[in-house]
Design a protein that fits this description.
This protein is of the alpha/beta class. 44% of the residues lie in helices and 15% in strands.
Length: 226
């Protein structure tokens, strides 16, 4: 089993994470599914024969345990998709400050902890790190702390790429526009991306030859104006 390639995903219980898990399983990867929602994780793990690990990405002990479970079960980690995150209302007078705090801890600190926790295993495997940023991580949105967190993830992707330089590890930022997932409370008014569209972009990045590092994929719906 240790000879099989292993794909670890945080925020794997729904949306882009779940779609990527299915795509990775279809491509022959052993998939490690991590999130806080245990019921959804277990159902998806049963569907794709994956390993479900409850993980709050803001807790270092959970991240260490997640990596330990993956290595104990499969012996290696080849691809890591740091995908856990959530958004909120735009406007600096919107949302509760505690929601802001949780968003920053999940979207920024949690992503950094995933990099730290998986770095040795990725280096051993000469693997691939993917981070979920956003169109909102390329341009500021009015009053959007979420946009600020995704700018941080965009910077983190380049910082990680430089840190991994000469190890053989590749780093890719995934920057979706509007995606029709549970992320949005109301359905998008335009023909939005589907989670599977983003998953295909991810599989494209990891399928390149080892000397090719696709650093950023910005993917928008055709109808999205900005």
């Amino acid at each position: 089993m240790a000879d099989d390639k292993v794909f670890l995903i945080t925020g794997a219980s729904s949306g882009i994470g779940a779609a990527t898990a299915r795509a990775a399983a279809d491509a022959g990867y052993k998939v490690v599914l991590a999130a806080r929602s245990e019921d959804k994780l277990q159902a998806l793990a049963s569907e794709i024969d994956g390993l479900a690990v409850r993980c709050d990405v803001t807790e270092w002990a959970d991240q260490e345990a997640m990596v330990g479970r993956a290595l104990d079960e499969y012996g290696r980690i080849d691809v890591v998709f740091a995908n856990a995150g959530f958004g909120g209302a735009r406007g600096f007078l919107k949302e509760d400050p505690e929601t802001w705090k949780s968003m920053v801890l999940t979207n920024v600190y949690g992503c950094a902890l995933t990099i730290r926790a998986t770095m040795p295993a990725l280096t051993d495997a000469k693997g691939h790190l993917l981070l979920t940023s956003s169109v909102a991580g390329r341009r500021a949105l009015p009053g959007s702390l979420y946009s600020v967190t995704k700018h941080a993830v965009t910077a983190m992707g380049e910082a990680a790429r430089l840190d991994f330089n000469d190890t053989g590890v590749r780093v890719t930022l995934i920057e979706p526009g509007m995606v029709d997932t549970p992320f949005f409370e109301n359905p998008p008014k335009i023909r939005a991306l589907e989670a599977g569209d983003v998953a295909r972009a991810i599989m494209f990045a990891i399928s390149q030859p080892p000397h090719v590092d696709v650093n950023e994929i910005l993917i928008r719906p055709t109808a999205q104006p900005t």
